[in-house]
Amino acid sequence: MIACAARLELLAVPGVPLVGPGADLPAILAHALSSGGIRLAKGDVLVVSSKLVSRAEGRFVELPKVVPSPRALDLALRVGKDARLVELILRESSAVSRATRGVLVARHRLGFIVANAGIDASNAVPPGSAADSGPWALLLPEAPDASAAAIRARLELESRTSVGVVVSDSFGRPFRLGTVGAAIGVSGLPPLWDRRGEPDLFGRLLEQTVTALGDQVAAAADLVAGQAAEGRPLVLVRGLTFDPSEQGAQSLTRRPEEDLYA
Amino acid sequence: MIACAARLELLAVPGVPLVGPGADLPAILAHALSSGGIRLAKGDVLVVSSKLVSRAEGRFVELPKVVPSPRALDLALRVGKDARLVELILRESSAVSRATRGVLVARHRLGFIVANAGIDASNAVPPGSAADSGPWALLLPEAPDASAAAIRARLELESRTSVGVVVSDSFGRPFRLGTVGAAIGVSGLPPLWDRRGEPDLFGRLLEQTVTALGDQVAAAADLVAGQAAEGRPLVLVRGLTFDPSEQGAQSLTRRPEEDLYA
Fold it and tell me: Which of B144, B125, B162, B146 shows the shortest CA–CA distance to B40?
């Protein structure tokens, strides 16, 4: 059972450092919460930026060390992108969804469709790298559902209550402008909330109301997370009620055979 | 200037009645807020369900009175939907985006692409209709930006501060499962928040960060709004900071020539 919240609170958790490869992210997040005087309650959801998870996993790639394949060189010429970045996009993807001038949309190996395979090409430099290194790209986490589960396990151990964890990224949309937060890793929280079968106000059955709970939580958290100078990679969402779930973010992804726009 | 909120609060406003055609919605919403003891503050955003706006505008259509065109009859046969509903979808749309078994996705006359032209076919009955009437369909509001502006004007008049108003609907997505809240009417709040040009943590320029603020606010509000027995069609979002904007929800919509999946 999930009940809608009548009141929801979102809080950027302060004190989360800019982690580097090898960081024990679950411990670091647990520490930020306790340092901030935040005691988790049942049903709290923690939304963690995918970039933070990627940094801890050391998903940095130094672009000059990437050797583009012939296919990447061809595609790079066609879309007008750095061939080394295109090579990384292809390595991270199972299929190209759309390729046109300035745009390369791919089906990520994790199942979802996303521009540039979700690679952050803003040159986020790994700590301790040489001054003349880079530019760098940052790949999405290796297994975001597992990362979410590891964070959840640690937080549940310390708080002795059940919580949810979402690893979020910002996605563009094919039909709408601007990015929105999307859940690429989920643990504890049902990614989809199936409201079909609940009576509506007149006691009839709702026709089509499966809500993308994970994505909506990620979108809400993005309102407080920021991506720029603020740097708030951990957001607490308090006020949802849900039964613990073991479904991952894959359940939010349409399978290729369900893709109306393939 | 928009600053991310470090803390955001969402509250379902109690006491909003199930309005019918001709209701003075701005006055009704203002009354619900004051009855609930809620005093609006600068930067508050009110998210109003499109269904509530449609009800007030009398956008009910009694299906048995709809005469399907030959084109609607053909299309209905192909996709397996009620021909009268298909007729309404075509009337509300400028183009069909995808039509396949059980699915009819259209470009709505308001510019966005949405399943079934956003028509609610769950038989929401207009108040005072005969017991043997219907079934009924409920179309999207006539001009949701104008509806949002009218609500905003009334709330700003009473509160003497600047607020934002979003008229929201639940949209499916072509590549992901589950619905999310989307902004189909916006007033006061910038629908898109252009973060390009802000320095990132290392003082470099962010590459691509135009956030769909309106949609993220709608998605967040949907977490507390519910659609079923709870019926919470008005949500207050408190904690955002933004300069007043006169941009409407159209700015969230990709134009047909920008549609990579046309």
Answer: B162
* Amino acid B250: pLDDT: 92
- Strand duo A193-194 + B180-187: pairing: unpaired
- Please indicate if any CB of chain A lies within 8 Å of the CB of B165: no
- In whole angstroms, give the CA distance from residue A144 to residue A116: 17
Say how far residue A127 (Cα) sits from the centre of its chain. 22
Which residue carries 């937060």 as its tokens? A181
Distance separating alpha carbons of residues B23 and B101, to the nearest angstrom: 38
- Quote the pTM value: 0.94
What are B91-131's pLDDT values in tens digits? Answer: 999 999 889 888 899 999 999 999 899 998 887 889 889 98
Closest by CA to B114, choosing from B198, B31, B182, B190, is: B182
Strand partners, B99: B104
Question: What contacts B202, CB < 8 A, 6 or more positions away?
Answer: A123, A124, A125
Give φ, ψ of B104 to 5 degrees: -140, 105
Max CA distance (Å), chain B? 67
Residue B135 preceded by cis peptide, ω within 30:
yes
Query: Checking phi first, is residue A187 left (phi over 0); if not, alpha (psi -120 to 50) or beta?
Result: beta
| Residue numbers of B between 114 and 153 with CB closer than 8 Å to A | 121-125
pLDDT in tens, B8-60: 999 999 999 989 999 999 999 999 999 999 999 999 999 999 999 999 999 99
- Smallest CA-to-CA distance from B138 within B153, B116, B122, B151 is with B122
Please tell me whether the interface predicted TM-score (ipTM) of this complex is above 0.95. Answer: no
Mean pLDDT of chain B: 90
Question: What whole-number distance in Å separates Cα of residue B87 and Cα of residue A157?
Answer: 56
pLDDT for res B77: 96
Alpha-carbon gap, residue A36 to A48, rounded angstroms: 16
Taking an 8 Å cut-off on Cβ atoms, the answer to whether A215 and B220 are in contact is no
B201 touching A, CB under 8 A?
yes
Element (H, E) at A223: helix A213-225
Chain A contact present for B174, CB below 8 A: yes
CB A203 within 8 A of CB A168: no
Q: What does the block give as tokens for B222?
A: 């949907």
* Partner A contacted by B96 (CB < 8 A): no
Paired residues of B169 in beta bridges: B182
Question: How does DSSP assign chain B, residue by residue?
Answer: --B--SEEEEEEPS------TT--HHHHHHHHHHHTTPPP-TT-EEEEEHHHHHHHTT-EEEGGG----HHHHHHHHHHT--HHHHHHHHHTEEEEEEEETTEEEEEETTS-EEEGGG-B-S--PPTT--TT---EEEPPPS-HHHHHHHHHHHHHHHH-S--EEEEEEEE--SSBSSBEEEEEEEEBS-SSEE-TTSB-TTSPBPSS-EE-HHHHHHHHHHHHH-SSTT---EEEEE--B---B---GGGGBPPGGG-TT-
